[in-house]
Every structure is written in structure tokens, then in C-alpha cells.
Amino acid sequence: MGANINLSFEEMWEKIIACDSKYDGLFFTAVKTTKIYCRPSCRSRKPKKINVEFFYDIKEVEKAGFRACKRCQPESDHSPHIELVRNVVAFLVNHYKQKLELQDIANHVGVSSYYLERLFKQETSETPRTYLEKIRVDKAAYLLTSTDRTNLEICYEVGFQSPSNFYKVFRRLKNSSPSEYRTLLNKE
């Protein structure tokens, strides 16, 4: 894979705990004690946080002496279009703050916007737009629980162009408003 993504250790840790398949192929979880590496969506028992190391490239993780998990088989691609989808997802993760049009994404990967939307939906069951919204809401949720920024600051920080759209999408994906989400998680 060519493009690295901008995720902190904590964010990647959250993705593996949630078994988030959106990030499969963008990074790999290597467990120092077992010398095994997995996809973020692997359903195997989760390791201790201190035993985890993250890699962006499968060649690097194997070069470091780790072997592939037999359960999630991170070394095998299940689709001929997976590399294109990975490039799109990496682009979305790295550029989520910007105002993105479907054509911008299509230009980045070198296909038509029609073909991109159809292929992406076939592979992920989502459109690039809904995928981007999920990335933005994930980032917003992380900022809500780890910073003291206002909801409005977070709205613009994660790339939403209007607060009303931010609140609508956040509620749809998290089943609460940003304020309710922050309050709920800070109580725990």
C-alpha cells in the first residue's frame, strides 16, 4: 500500500477494539508477545494495549518478524478492486477536513466518478460520501471526548461545512447529539 494515514495510536486502538472493517488494509495490528499481525476488523481476542504495535505496510510488519493471523488472513485480498478502495479510503482519511466532491476523489484514484461510486458501493456497501461522513463523525467523537473544544469548533475542524448537517449526521450515526455524546462518555 502506498499512502499512510493520519491516525494516532489511540485512534487506531479504538478501531481494533471496535473491529472496524473500514480501516482494513490501511494499517495492521501487530502483537509483540505472539508475533502475529491482524486486520483492524479481526474478531480474535484483543491483546493488551502495551503489547500492540501498528504498521501501515504489510511488507514492513512481515519484515519486523510478524506472521499473518490465520483467522482474519490480512495478507490476502478478497477482491481485485481492493487496492482502489484502499486508496480511496486512505484519501478520505487524510483529507476529511477538506471540502471534497466525488470528482476530487475520482481524480485522485484515476477513474470516472460514476465508476468510482458504483465500485466503492459494491465493495463497501456505502457511497464515498457516507464513508466520509463516518470518518468525520469518528473524528468528531474522538475530539468530543479528548478535548474541550466547542461543538461548533469540532464541526468545522472535522470538515463539515454547516453545523446543521454536522448535528444531523452525528445524530444519525451515534444516536445522540454531540453534546449528549460528550456528557454520556464523560460520565463513564
TrEMBL record:
<keyword id="KW-0238">DNA-binding</keyword>
<dbReference type="GO" id="GO:0008270">
    <property type="term" value="F:zinc ion binding"/>
</dbReference>
<keyword id="KW-0805">Transcription regulation</keyword>
<keyword id="KW-0808">Transferase</keyword>
<protein>
    <submittedName>
        <fullName>Methylphosphotriester-DNA--protein-cysteine methyltransferase family protein</fullName>
    </submittedName>
</protein>
<dbReference type="GO" id="GO:0043565">
    <property type="term" value="F:sequence-specific DNA binding"/>
</dbReference>
<dbReference type="InterPro" id="IPR004026">
    <property type="entry name" value="Ada_DNA_repair_Zn-bd"/>
</dbReference>
<dbReference type="InterPro" id="IPR035451">
    <property type="entry name" value="Ada-like_dom_sf"/>
</dbReference>
<keyword id="KW-0010">Activator</keyword>
<dbReference type="InterPro" id="IPR009057">
    <property type="entry name" value="Homeodomain-like_sf"/>
</dbReference>
<dbReference type="GO" id="GO:0008168">
    <property type="term" value="F:methyltransferase activity"/>
</dbReference>
<keyword id="KW-0489">Methyltransferase</keyword>
<dbReference type="GO" id="GO:0003700">
    <property type="term" value="F:DNA-binding transcription factor activity"/>
</dbReference>
<dbReference type="GO" id="GO:0006281">
    <property type="term" value="P:DNA repair"/>
</dbReference>
<dbReference type="InterPro" id="IPR018060">
    <property type="entry name" value="HTH_AraC"/>
</dbReference>
<dbReference type="GO" id="GO:0032259">
    <property type="term" value="P:methylation"/>
</dbReference>
<dbReference type="InterPro" id="IPR016220">
    <property type="entry name" value="Me-P-triester_DNA_alkyl-Trfase"/>
</dbReference>
<dbReference type="Pfam" id="PF02805">
    <property type="entry name" value="Ada_Zn_binding"/>
</dbReference>
<dbReference type="Pfam" id="PF12833">
    <property type="entry name" value="HTH_18"/>
</dbReference>
<keyword id="KW-0804">Transcription</keyword>
